[in-house]
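In this supplementary section we document a worked example of the pipeline. Step one takes a protein sequence of length 426 as its only input; no multiple sequence alignment statistics are reported here. Step two produces a three-dimensional model, which step three serialises into structure tokens for compact storage. The input and output of this example are shown verbatim.
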Amino acid sequence: MKKVLIILLGVVIILIGSIYLSVSGTQKTFETCYISNFEELQRTNFRNHDSVLIAPSILYEANLLKDLVQGSNYRDAWSEKVKFPIVFLDTLYGGMEIIKEGGGKQTHSLKLRAKNDILYTLRSVTKDPGKLIPEIAEDLGLENIIVDGISAQHPYAAILAAELAQELDILHTHPRMVFIPKQNVLGDFNEKFGNRLFLLEYETESKTNWTSLKNVSEIIETKDLQKLKFETKTKISVDQEALIKGRLFDLLIGDWDRHAEQWGWVIQKSDRGNIAIPVAGDRDNAFFYISGLIPSIITNKNVEPLVRPFEKEIDHMPGLVYPFDRYFLSNTSEDMFIKQANELQKSLSDEIIANAFEAWPEQIRKLNEKEIAEKLKSRREKLQEYATQFFQQIQEQGKLSEALKGSEDLELSSSQLACFDCDLEN
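The serialised model returned by step three reads:
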């Protein structure tokens, strides 16, 4: 027994030592993109150039020990140098006006308005995890575990997700990756947003229609959709088939982070009245892949059920059902889910999957295409099974008793809180 305890103690000491060695490579918590071919940034006139060679981030470069303890993830994709177009806001789409700064817990963003009144957003590719680091991690010197976890996100995830969505006739925000140098239009935002790599995409709200759909009055966020129905008493229904299709697509691409604030709604006038058609934003966590000793423990379904790694099979459906789903899809049928799953299976051919990767730079394809494509195909084959599980989880978890994220300040009745179709007065 004594020998066993000594061995166990030795294993614990080695494990703790390995953890601290793995996180000691860098003390940085945030770093912007690495610009390769312009050393003197302050002296460079980027208007004389049309592109720049950039690695989205070299913060996640690692040795063998770090790969073992914290996972290999998508480190190579983050540090791979790729050419990106240089964009100036005073000439982009006839000139852009900065509306306001936005962003969530990790992303820095700016909301922009073009001359035609269409809203766009710049979303930073490199993430700032400072708000996510708990005090205990700082006290123990383990904040790098949180910082390094961002390497599980694929820097080009949004581009591939959009290409697949386009092929499947699913609305998306048409993201593209651009380099924004320091420039006069940025003004006071130059220090934070200048000389950085961004996703430029449509906003999930707009008074002007940027979609291909006809008879669109506006594009609004989830909170405003609730206001439209419950405060102004506008007769409106959600396109549940389109939403089911969109959520099953999320399962295909492994996008586990789909709360209410990450959706917009295209309001279309039709013979049936106003219809709200969903459009997904924020694809940071599509194809989310995490490995290594520590992440595997942290993302265990019994520890953190909401963070689900992108594998060939879905291992924990309850963690993928959001209050958003229960709110908008509680009054649906299993047949609706099966129908959409069947249509997606037929539409998402091997050829379409292969063609979608052409949206990626060639060097990124070489790094990650094979593995991601195999996982997509595996999930596609089981999509009807997943659709049934998803529907059943919505029914089991039931209707809501609390407000959706972002809608906490709305004054809604209990029936209006429960689900979008529960209010008997509408």
